Amino acid sequence: MSEQVLPFYLVCDESYSMQGPPLDAINQELPLIYQEIASNPVVADRARLGIIGFSSTAEVLLPLADLNDVHSIPQLSPRGTTSYGAAFSLLKRTIEQDIAGLKQAGHAPYRPTVFFLTDGLPTDDWHGEHKDLVSRDFRAHPTILAFGFGDVDPTTLQQVATFRAFIANGDMSPTQALREFARQLLNSVVQSAVASSSNPSGTAQLIIPDQVPGYTVLAPDPL
Amino acid sequence: MEQVQEHEAPSMTETAHGFPQPLVIGREPRVISQPGPLPAVRRPDTEIDGAALPGLEVRAASIRGDAHRYYGTVRQDAMGLWHDGDRTLLACVADGLGSKEGSHVGAATACEVAQAYLSTLPIAPDHVTDARDFVDGIAGEIRNRADERGMPPEELSTTFLAARVQEMPEASVHRAVLVRVGDCMAWHLHRGVWTPCFGEDDADTGVSTSATHALPQDIEHAEVGYADLYPGDMLLLCTDGLAKPMRGPQVSSQLASWWSRPPSLPEFFWQMSFRAKTHDDDRTAVCIWRV
After folding, report:
1. How many domains does chain A have?
2. If exposure means fewest CB atoms within 10 Å of the residue's CB, which of A106, A158, B157, B243 is most exposed?
3. With respect to CATH, is domain B46-290 assigned 3.60.40.10?
4. Where is the VWFA domain (chain A) (predicted)?
5. Residues B5-33: pLDDT tens digits?
6. Cβ–Cβ of B278/A111 closer than 8 Å?
7. Which of B73, B251, B278 is the closest to A198 by Cβ?
8. Chain B partners of A200 at a C-beta cutoff of 8 Å?
9. pLDDT digit string (tens) for A84-95?
């Protein structure tokens, strides 16, 4: 049976600099995000959330799955350096496979949305992998929202984002800022799913806040 | 690893013994099919209609989607039937765009006023090529309705599909001319096989989009289609709340089987209430059988 699917990916920096409060906060929030999604049947029916962690390498921590099939949530753990290239390249392969799989099963997937979370400068040259991921030639190219805090470079964040970038402005502790990030991710999944259910004929499916407490909004790099 | 709490579905209202629940096609949706809070805008959850006309049987239903029921929001689909008492039937369906505040008004207006502009659709020759006057007249009425409410016209945005079905003299055929703006669909069911009356927008773009043309703004995007109905044939007009699940062969073949003949009104409502995961939008269909 053909289902309408809204794919979301959390792509999370697991480099050593994320150790402590940032990863602890994300690990605490993730199960709550899934619980919240599951508590709203309209959202749970159509939203799918996958998790990719990256440091020196990248791995799929939780495949894009229907909530019916998610019974446990992985924990993010600090390791290695910060290879954006590994993250973007795995993300592209994962999206390609997921979209193809969904279509093969007869489903109608919408354009994926990526929440990219990082706290530092990439240690590799990642522009080629990023270009492949967001290129119009890649038909399922995702909409990317980039969230940065810690030592992150605003210009890098703007280059990563295709839609909007958010940079922590120091008003909040890292724990609070990460909780806020989690809340935004959840709201976006819920509101986008609701909008697409009552509005298959409408315009934008993706509902993203203009402002996020504790973060400064940056436009994506026009290049 | 932390455990995720299993979601507990609210209990379904008890039904009378032996009364069949709506059919679930594919995986069981989490969204329950039941009314929720009463919408602030008063408009019935469901409309059912039907008619027996010379050579034609009509069944029609416009049903609020389970997502709208869950949130207690109003049905934005609308439908309309009109017969001139002689040889001409007009049937309409419309789907108000969900993001717009007055879209249910736009959809209802389009279906209500369409018959006043029927004469602007050329009758002969067989093929109408220009439906602009027809949709322009309807768009004008939607703009007027927006003015009365002090709303910008695009707040009443709605897709629209109309079919004029005429009995041809001295022939067993009923000829349908169809006009649409946006993603409503029309199919001709002939010997169990569905044929779309408009080119389907199935361009493989990689991912689905949800953009559509709508009235009152997109009058230049009016499309025209045709169908000749012979005894036993059926013409289906529907909003995307039915068109989207119909892309699944399980749904389209089930409907073809159910609708090989006109069902009773309660049967039609039950059939139209089938549940399919993620297909929780308003659903409207007008079925016109050539009998």
Report:
1. 1
2. A106
3. yes
4. 7-189
5. 444 444 455 667 788 899 999 999 999 99
6. no
7. B73
8. 98, 210, 240-241, 244, 281
9. 999 999 999 999
